[in-house]
């Protein structure tokens, strides 16, 4: 029986979130080890999310990429690589391997490791998911009610200020800084689009996870006594050499 | 003015139905015309705890589907003249609850001059639970002093503020009350249970009462008598305190401190 009130085909213009994966190398081994490194603590961080690889920053003299293997490496970590952007000379090879090549994409931000994942954003409980971009990029997103377990807030292109607690099981994401003037017990991801200068500042530090520009830390063995439930700031180390690391330090209030 | 109160928790088995029965009875004992509705379609319990299971002819779903009038569905409580029970259906599933249907029943109850409507929510965060909290003005969040119950309560608090009609219409947030049940001061003292202060620190909503763990609750359920009617028990006293605080009275928290049994009490075999 066909219900005639339901259309078989329907068109809707929609924005579906994808993960943009910046590849600076197309060597399978290098990609694999880099993925393992950055997702080390949580191999199931991605859960079948669609990914578009951005080749804009691939160095010169790259080898002929083995797209089959690169896809496998990604899918082993829950990322479904479906398309390329900024493909340049690699376009033809990728098309032959069955990947879609997107023509043009907006200019990449300075550095990016993670797009906010929507998976915790359980549809039934996310009235507080506010993500309107600020017109001039300056005003912060202000959240005055508690962010409860299962809720998510995302400050697109700006800072977020929380005046009530972020419970365990909640998620605060900002492209800029995160300020929490209450207990921070959930996950906090600042610099979600790759801003390495972003910081997380809270008056009561008890999070499950903190991340700045994709560099993250969990607290499996508990939060160090010197930091737990105290004013703390989280930032990236500013060393010029090597990978930046997370610095979590007591916040001195002068 | 009718006030609608949802009794909710997220987690099952924490004492929602016991609380709904006791709280609604307490309000009725204070003279308020009160209705208590069982939203746990398919697993009805409230009528058992209220001791009216043998008088159920029509249920909430019959009224929603207009197979019976509201007056036919409402069962008058055997203890209080001003208390009425609307039982859940045993034979339908949760999808039988439609938002329009629930809203119509609530509007009809308002028109019948009910002063309080207590909605007994099922566990979980699915249709039944969402319908129970949809029209609420206030919420009793029933929590046991253990981490998974506290986490589920936190989750339901988020859903409450996101999904209640009141919050969506911009009529201000649903007023939240924390009710701790099955509280054992001794186990708290021994470090086996979260203290009420711990739970309050995690959830950060006002505490309306602490109901001690007691065998009397089980006996009351089996007899079909709401716990407030167990005269002289600490459970009844604690629920009456909750009702008084809800109605605006200030009362000190009782049954939260552990008193070591003295020598005489131990010798005489008291508990």
Structural class of chain A: mainly beta
* Number of helical elements of chain B: 13
The side-by-side strand order for the widest beta sheet of chain B comes to 3-4-2-5-1-6-7-8
Oligomer: heterodimer
| Strands of chain A, total number | 15
Mean pLDDT, all residues of chain B: 93
Low-confidence stretches of chain B: none
Strand content of chain B: 15-25%
Q: Please count the beta strands of chain B (DSSP E, at least 2 residues each).
A: 8
Radius of gyration of chain B: 18 Å
Order of helices and strands of chain A: EHEHEHEEEEEEEEEEEE
Measure the end-to-end span of chain B. Answer: 45 Å
The percent range for strand residues of chain A is: 25-35%
Model description:
The complex is a heterodimer of chains A (254) and B (271). Chain A is mainly beta. Chain A has helices at 28-39, 67-75, 91-96, and strands spanning 19-22, 49-54, 79-85, 100-101, 141-143, 152-155, 160-162, 171-174, 178-184, 187-190, 200-205, 209-212, 215-218, 232-236, 246-250. Chain A starts with 18 loop residues before the first strand and ends with a strand. The longest helix of chain B has 17 residues, at 147-163. Chain B has helices at 16-29, 46-49, 60-64, 70-73, 99-111, 127-134, 147-163, 165-168, 185-189, 196-203, 215-223, 234-246, 263-267, and strands at 3-8, 34-38, 75-76, 83-86, 116-120, 138-143, 175-183, 207-212. Chain B contains 13 helices and eight strands. Chain A binds chain B through residues 124-128, 145-151, 164-165, 167-170, and chain B through 125, 130, 151, 154-155, 157-159, 161-163, 167-168, 173, 202, 204.
């Amino acid at each position: 029986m066909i219900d005639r009130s339901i259309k078989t085909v329907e068109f809707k213009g929609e924005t579906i979130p994808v993960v943009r994966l910046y590849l600076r190398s197309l060597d399978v081994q290098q990609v694999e080890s880099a993925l393992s490194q950055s997702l080390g603590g949580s191999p199931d961080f991605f859960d079948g999310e669609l990914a578009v690889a951005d080749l804009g920053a691939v160095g010169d003299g790259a080898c002929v990429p083995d797209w089959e293997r690169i896809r496998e490496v990604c899918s082993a970590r829950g990322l479904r690589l479906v398309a390329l952007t900024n493909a340049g000379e690699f376009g033809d090879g990728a098309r032959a391997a069955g990947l879609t090549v997107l023509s043009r994409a907006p200019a990449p931000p300075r550095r990016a490791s993670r797009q906010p994942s929507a998976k915790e954003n359980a549809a039934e409980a996310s009235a507080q998911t506010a993500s309107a971009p600020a017109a001039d990029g300056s005003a912060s997103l202000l959240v005055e009610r508690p962010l409860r377990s299962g809720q998510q807030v995302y400050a697109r292109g700006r800072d977020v200020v929380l005046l009530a607690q972020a419970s365990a099981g909640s998620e605060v994401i900002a492209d800029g800084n995160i300020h929490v003037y209450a207990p921070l017990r959930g996950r906090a991801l600042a610099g979600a689009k790759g801003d390495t200068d972003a910081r997380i500042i809270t008056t009561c530090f008890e999070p499950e996870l903190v991340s700045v520009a994709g560099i993250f830390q969990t607290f499996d063995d508990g939060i160090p006594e010197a930091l737990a439930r105290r004013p703390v700031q989280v930032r990236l180390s500013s060393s010029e050499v090597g990978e930046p690391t997370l610095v979590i330090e007591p916040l001195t209030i002068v | 003015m009718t006030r609608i109160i949802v009794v909710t928790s997220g987690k099952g088995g924490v004492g929602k139905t016991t609380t709904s029965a006791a709280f609604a009875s307490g309000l009725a004992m204070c003279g308020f015309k009160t209705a208590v509705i069982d939203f746990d379609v398919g697993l009805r319990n409230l009528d058992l705890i209220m001791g009216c299971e043998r008088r159920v002819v029509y249920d909430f779903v019959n009224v929603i589907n207009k197979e019976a009038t509201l007056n036919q569905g409402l069962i008058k409580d055997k203890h209080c003249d001003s208390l009425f029970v609307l039982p859940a259906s045993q034979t339908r599933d949760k999808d039988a609850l439609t938002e329009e249907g629930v809203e119509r029943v609530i509007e009809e109850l308002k028109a019948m001059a009910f002063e309080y409507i207590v909605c007994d929510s099922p566990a979980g965060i699915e249709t039944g639970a969402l319908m129970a909290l949809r029209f609420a003005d206030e919420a009793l969040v029933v929590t046991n002093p253990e981490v998974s119950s506290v986490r589920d309560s936190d989750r339901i608090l988020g859903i409450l503020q996101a999904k209640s009609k009141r919050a969506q219409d911009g009529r201000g947030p649903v007023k939240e009350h924390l009710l701790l049940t099955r509280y054992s001061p001794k186990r708290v003292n021994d470090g086996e249970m979260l203290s009420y202060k711990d739970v309050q620190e995690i959830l950060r909503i006002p505490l309306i009462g602490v109901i001690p763990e007691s065998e009397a609750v089980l006996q009351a359920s089996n007899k079909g008598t709401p716990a407030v009617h167990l005269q002289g028990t600490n459970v009844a006293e604690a629920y009456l305190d909750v009702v008084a605080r809800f109605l605006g009275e200030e009362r000190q928290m009782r049954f939260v401190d552990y008193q070591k049994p003295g020598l005489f009490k131990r010798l005489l075999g008291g508990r």
